[in-house]
Amino acid sequence: MIKYKDNLYKMMQDNKVQIFDTTLRDGEQVPGCKLDTKQKLVIAERLDLLGVNVIEAGFPVSSPGDFKSVSEIAKIIKNATVCGLTRAVENDIKVAAEALKFAKYPRIHTGIGTSDSHIKFKFNSTREAVIERAVKAVSYSKSFVEDVEFYAEDAGRTDNEFLARVCEAVIKAGATVLNIPDTTGYCLPEEYGAKMKYLRENVKGIEKVILSCHCHNDLGMATANSIAGVINGARQIECTINGIGERAGNTALEEVVMVLKQHPYLNLETSINTKLLYDTSILVRESMGMPVQPNKAIVGANAFAHSSGIHQDGVIKNRETYEIMDPEDVGVTESAIILTARSGRAALAYRAKKIGYELTKVQLDVAYTSFLEFADKQKEIKDDDIHAIMKVVNKISKIVMA
Ligand code: KIV
Ligand code: ZN
Questions:
Q1: Within 13 Å of residue 163, how many CA atoms lie on the same side as its CB?
Q2: What residues have a C-beta under 5 A from ligand 2, the ion?
Q3: Topology given in CATH for the domain delimited by 305-394
Q4: Over the stretch 175-229, which tens digit does the pLDDT of each residue have?
Q5: Site residues for ligand 1, CB cut-off 6 Å
């Protein structure tokens, strides 16, 4: 029997929120995002460096390729727990255990749907039979590894009293982590938080396990729901880089990590080296060929870009007027001042100085008139355009180079 991390019990009692990354499993399920083993190994190593606590490396029984990826990742990862997904099916569990056998810290992630909709339409079964299958899956997983996470699929739409019964039964069977997925992204933050609180208050043995948030983004609430979950006692968040995942995606790792960092009074910490967030986002975006929307929080191209005159003037005077975090904290070198027809004199003078032109007030007035003519014709003014504008100004009045 392989031991799980010695400090697991310590971690679940304090203010540390475990980051469980599922980019290589839930994220990779997205059509077009398929990765080969080599690409997965590069991403897994980067996630380990980033400081995630758990890497869900794949669903080993799903294909020989996925089995190989999980097994190769298990061999090389030095710090994080490596996890493999299974259904509550003996063969899935056996195959996952085989794939994980070389992991320093292996975890089997097994589970079953618990909502009435899943029980009736997916399994044509009953609540009692589902509890029995859940318990069997956890007990069987425990015969291979100590660290067993149980997921109650569609927990978001599962009746809380029944969910509590399932949780109690799988804790008795030895589960170490209880994953409460909002599989369809339906819950409101208050509702999801209340679910965690209910489980903490009504499940015997709950203090022995880590409660985990796994939220999908169908209504754009995955991050808010995960945060509500940890405020109400969960100590693990399952998430993906750039929020990729089924349909509208999973909780974005970079978002939850930065929410906790920027709100220190919550007294909840992660072990993520946030300065690596931007580069990791680029690595995942490029390996999967999955673009990131420009207005995506934290890692989108416009996340630290300012384009209106009023905002630019404020940011040039003091970054904190319009930025609630330092771009360097997430690995972005600096805020961007984008010059458009909405920009003011302050932004033009700022950019001109950056590329070498120190303008007097009169020169700036002349330059600004010419700038607006350029800007009305094109979406954005680039440095080459500024050089052209400065040639016009120089003819009237000699500019001192900065
Ligand atoms: O969304 C979900 O319910 C899942 C489980 C398989 C953990 O991804
Ligand atoms: Zn999921």
A1: 29
A2: 26
A3: Recoverin; domain 1 (1.10.238)
A4: 999 999 999 999 999 999 999 999 999 999 999 999 999 999 999 999 999 999 9
A5: 26, 151, 153, 179, 181, 183, 214, 216
